[in-house]
Amino acid sequence: MIILKLLRNLIIFVCLIYLISCKTAKLTSGDKKTEASKSTSVGLSEAAELQFGRTFIDGCTARQKNDVDAAVKLFTECKQIDPKSAPVAYELAKIYLEKNSPLLAIEQAKYCAGSDSKNEYYQKILIDAYNSNKQYQQAIKVAEALVKNFPNVIEFKEDLAIQYASVNEFNKAFNLYNEIEQIYGFNEQITNNKVKLLRNQNKLAEAEAELIKLTETDKLNTDYLAILAEFYEETDKRDKAKIIYDRILEINPQHPTVNLALSDYYNLQQSPQKGFEFLKKAFQNPDLDPSVKANIAFNYYIRSEKSGNAELVKQGKELASIFITVHPKNSDANGVYADYLMMDNKPKEAAKYYYQAAVSEKSNYKVWEQLMYVYNDINNFDSLRSVSAKAIELFPNQPNPYFFNGFSNIKLKKYDQAITALKDGLEFVIDNKSQMLSFYYNLADAYNYSFDYASSDKAFEDALKIDADNTLVLNNYAYYLSIRKVKLDVAEKMAKRSNELQPNNRNYMDTYGWILFQQKKYSEAEIWIGNALKIPPPNANILEHYGDVMYKLNKIPEALKYWQDAKKLSGGNDKLNLKISSKELVD
C-alpha cells in the first residue's frame, strides 16, 4: 500500500508538471490557479492503477525525449486501462496538435475539456485544436466560456479579442479591449491592438484619436509619440509626423529612431544634405541598433560601388567611420569599414578590420571568406593558412576554406598538408566545375612538388576532363612533363594548344620552346624562347632557358651572358651558379 500511495503522488506530480508546462503567460495577481485533474478515474483496481501509473510516467518520459510515437503508444495503453482519464486525453491532444492531426486533437481535447470546464489548460488545448482545424467559431465559444469562468484573467480576454478579429468581428474585439482598458488603464499593446482593428476598418480618424489618447497619458514618453509619428508617416500625413518628431527631439535631442525618421523626411523634401546630418546624428547614438546602422551603411556601400558618385562615396565613408568609432568591436562595423578601405585600394589595412569582423561574429561565413581572399591578394600566406584552418573548423561543409588552406600550404611548401586539405575539400564541391577544376589543378601542383608524379598527372587529367581547353592547366601540365622529360609528344601538343588559345603569352611561349629544347629541336626552341624574351619585363627563368638554347647551338659567350643576366634577376641557384662557373650546361 505504501508503494501504491507513493505512485499515486508521483502521478499527480507528473500531471502537474506537464500541465503547468503548457502555460505561456502568468495569471493576473490574485487569481487562483486551477488545480490539475487527478491522474486516474476512481474505481480502478489497485493493480490497474499501478499499471496505469507506470505506463503514464513512461509516456511522459518518452514525450520529454521527443519520442512521439512511443508516447502515443504508451498514452493509448493508459486510455485502454482508464478510458475516462482526462490527463491522458490532454497529453494525446497536445501530441496530435504537434503532429498536425487536428481532428484527432479535437477528439481528445473535447473529452478533457468536457470533463472539467474550470480547468484552463483543458479549455485552451480545445481552443488550439479548433483553430488548428480552422473551426474558428467553435474556438470562440470555448474562449468566451473561458473568459466567463476566469473574468479577471487579462490574457484570456486578449486572446478572445484576437479570435474575434480573426473572423472580422471587430466591434466585439474593440469592446473587449475597451473593457480591459477600463479595468487596467491605458496600455501600449492594447492601444496598438485597437488601432490595428480600426485601421483594418479604415477608421483612420478613430485610430488617430486612440494614439493621441495614449500620448496624453504620459506626455514625456517618447515611445508613445514615436508610435503616433509612425502612424502619420504610414497614412501620408508627413507634416503632422514632422511636428511630433520635433516634440520628441525637444524631450530627447539624441533620439536615434527619430533622427532616422527626420533623415527620411528631409530626403523626401529634396533636402538630402539636411537629411544626411540627421542620419549622422542617428549613427552617433550608441543606442541605435547596430544592425540598423549596418543595413544603412551596406546600402551606401553598394550604391557607392555601383554609381561611383563621389559625394555618395564620401558620405558612405563618413558613416562607416562613425559606425566603427561608436561600435569598435561590432562585426558589421568592421566589415563595412574594411569594404571602404578595399575601395581605396588599401587591402593590408582592410585585412585588419576583416579579421576583427570575423572573430567578432564567428558564424558569418561571408566575412571569413572575404578575409581569406584579401590575405591571398596580399600574399600573406601564413595568415591565410591560419585563418583558413579556423574557417574549416567553423564551416566544415564550405569548400573554399579547404581550397585556401591547400593553396597557402603549397606556397609555404607544406605539400602533404596541402594535399590533405584539397582532397578533403573536393568532397564539398557541388555543381561548380570551375571550382572543382581549381582544386584538381592545385592538387596536381602539390603532388608534383611531392614527387608523386603519377598522382600529379592524374589530377591534371581530371582537370582537363572538366575543361580540355584550360590554358593554365595545359601549359603547366606540359611544362612539368618537359622537366621530367617524359611524354614529350603529349606535352608538345598541349603547349601548342595553349599558345593557339592564348597567343603572345610569354610563359606559354617559353614552355613550348622548352619542350622543343627537350626534343632537341634547338633552332625552333631559339625562335619561341627568343620571342618570349622580347615581351617585358625580363624573366629569370626565360633568360636561363635561352642561355641553355644558346649553349646547345654552340654559342657559348651568348649562353654565359644570358645565364649571368638570369642570376642578376633571381639571385641564382646551385645549378645556375655551376653553369656560370663551369661555362657548361648542367643537366
Question: What does the model show?
Answer:
This protein has 587 residues and is an all-alpha fold. Helix content is 76%, strand content 0%. The chain contains 32 helices and no strands. The protein has helices at residues 2-20, 46-64, 68-81, 86-98, 102-115, 120-132, 136-149, 154-166, 170-184, 188-200, 204-217, 222-234, 238-251, 256-268, 272-284, 290-307, 310-326, 331-343, 347-360, 365-377, 381-394, 399-411, 415-426, 433-449, 453-466, 471-484, 488-501, 506-518, 522-533, 540-552, 556-570, 574-582. Helix 1 packs parallel to helix 2 (46-64) and helix 26 runs parallel beside helix 28. The relative contact order is 0.02.
